[in-house]
Structure formats: structure tokens, C-alpha cells
Write a structure and sequence with these properties.
The chain is an alpha+beta fold and 138 residues long. Helix content is 39%, strand content 27%.
Length: 138
């Protein structure tokens, strides 16, 4: 950790109270740690698209019985197999599946693959979360 710098933050009480509640729910020991975490998240989001290599997770929920969806999702994944590190497939119930893909590669391609899979007709919910190795984050 580098030198510690202190700075003041002024917040309206209407914003501070819910922030303090959020800190408690997420088990932050203090406001400073929560703010550091928020800053790191913003920096990762800002830098991610410009990095030569990125990583992320894609979570999909879908009914595998719908419109040959499982086959279509698999074909899309095979087209970009070099971006997929691993997948996890869970049967939530008789119809619904949860699939998690761990992705690594060029950020523009990762985002494009995620968007293509999420937008497939029949996918009920999809979320892509970009991340970094954190090498340059304190």
C-alpha cells in the first residue's frame, strides 16, 4: 500500500444514511473502505475497455426447451471458443438452466460475445461483469 492521503467528502444526510446502511449490509468496517471499493470499481470499469486483455463472467438463465435455444447458445460459444476459459451449467429445475461462462481476452470481443448470448431469443436473464487482474489497483 502506498502513502495514505486523507480527503473530506460532504454528503447530504439523505445520501449518507442509505450509504451507511449499505456499508453495514456489505460488512464494510468503515466508510473509507467502502469508498475505496467504489473507487476501484469505477477505475476498473473506466480502464477495462482500453486494456489489451480483460476478463469477465457471463451469467445466463434460460429455458433449455425453448426454440432450440441450448443448441444456438452452444453454436455461438463455439464460434468464440478462444474467449471461453470455462463454463458451469446448473439445472435449476426441469426447464430452467443457469450457465456461467468465465471469459478472458480482448475486451471488445468479450463484450460482443456477452451481448450476442444475452440477446438470444429465449434467454430470460443475462449479466456480464467485467473485471481485471487488479495489478495496478491498490
Amino acid at each position: 500500500m502506498g502513502n495514505l492521503a486523507r480527503f473530506g467528502v460532504s454528503l447530504d444526510e439523505d445520501l449518507l444514511e442509505p450509504f451507511d446502511e449499505l456499508c453495514k449490509r456489505k460488512s464494510y468496517p468503515n466508510r473509507s473502505e467502502a469508498i475505496r471499493d467504489l473507487i476501484r470499481k469505477a477505475l476498473v470499469e473506466e480502464r477495462w475497455s482500453n486494456d489489451p486483455s480483460g476478463a469477465g463472467t457471463l451469467t445466463l438463465v434460460y429455458d433449455h426447451h425453448k426454440n432450440d435455444l441450448a443448441r444456438r447458445l452452444m453454436n455461438i460459444q463455439h464460434d468464440d471458443h478462444d474467449l471461453i476459459v470455462t463454463t458451469l451449467h446448473v439445472h435449476l429445475d426441469h426447464y430452467n438452466c443457469l450457465e456461467v461462462l468465465v471469459l478472458k481476452g480482448e475486451p471488445v470481443r468479450l463484450r460482443a460475445l456477452a451481448n450476442k448470448l444475452i440477446s438470444c431469443r429465449g434467454v430470460k436473464h443475462g449479466t456480464f461483469t467485467a473485471t481485471t487482474t487488479g495489478q495496478d489497483l491498490a
